[in-house]
Amino acid sequence: MARLDILVHGGCLSELSARSLAQEVRNEFPNWHINVRTAEQADTTLYGVLVFPAFLLDGRILTTGIPRKDWLVAKLRAWEKGER
Questions:
Q1: Is 57 a residue whose pLDDT tops 90?
Q2: How far is CA 57 from CA 13, 33, 68, in A?
Q3: C-beta of residue 8 within 8 angstroms of C-beta of residue 55
């Protein structure tokens, strides 16, 4: 099962947008594990993330900021097809 982790900076104005987008994407990909969580200091070291929100696809940085839903869905569909 594919995994999309969305790391947010707790209390940031973009957190609500990231959570809303995550819910919309869950509806498109019900078999995926999609998790939104507050980033920790270890995340910056482990993933090299400095900008939040950060979208991690199976542990790889896909994008930072809030992407357009259609772009994100297209990337996730490509990932499902093995286009990495």
A1: yes
A2: 23, 10, 16
A3: no
Helix (H) or strand (E) run with residue 63 in it: strand 60-64
pLDDT tens per residue, range 68-83: 999 999 999 999 999 8
Q: Which three-class secondary structure state does DSSP give residue 47?
A: helix
**CATH code at position 44:** 3.40.30.10
Q: DSSP label at 19?
A: H
Are the CB atoms for 42 and 74 separated by under 8 Å?
Answer: no
Number of folded domains that form the chain: 1
Q: Check: CB of residue 56 under 8 Å from CB of residue 5.
A: yes
Q: Tell me the pairing of strands 54-57 and 33-38.
A: unpaired
DSSP for residue 81:
T
> Residue 19's domain spans which residues?
3-80
